[in-house]
Amino acid sequence: MDLQYISDTEGRHTAVVIPIEEWNNITAKHEDLKHLETSKSQSIRQKPSDFFGTLSKEEGEKMQAYVTQSRNEWERDI
């Protein structure tokens, strides 16, 4: 198997690259590794809009009031 090692600036190995044919052979033999391919594609970063509605309007208003109060206290103390 032709492996390629990726090293950091101090020469420590940080990753390994294997040929795709070898990867396909390994995943064919070990079905449990298939989830590694799908989990990468499904781990898309979430956007703030994905969390819309997780706080009630009342909780949001309380939080906003607290932030505003904290900013006013910060500016007053400076």
* First-last Cα distance: 64 Å
Helical stretch tally: 3
| Poorly predicted regions | none
Q: Tally of extended strands?
A: 2
User: What is the helix/strand order?
Assistant: EEHHH
* pLDDT averaged over residues: 84
Query: β content, as a range?
Result: 5-15%
Q: Give Rg in angstroms.
A: 24 Å
- Overall body shape: elongated
- Helical proportion, percent range: 40-55%
Name the strands of the widest sheet in spatial order. 1-2
* Main sheet specs: 2 strands, antiparallel
The computed structural class is mainly alpha
Protein name: Prevent-host-death protein
Structure description:
This protein has a domain at 1-42. 51% of the residues lie in helices and 12% in strands. The chain has helices at residues 20-29, 34-42, 57-77; strands spanning 4-7, 13-17. It has a two-stranded antiparallel sheet with strand order 1-2. It is elongated, with a radius of gyration of 24 Å. 0% of the residues are buried. This is Prevent-host-death protein.
Give me the secondary-structure topology.
Layout: E1 4-7, E2 13-17, H1 20-29, H2 34-42, H3 57-77
Antiparallel strand pairs: 1-2
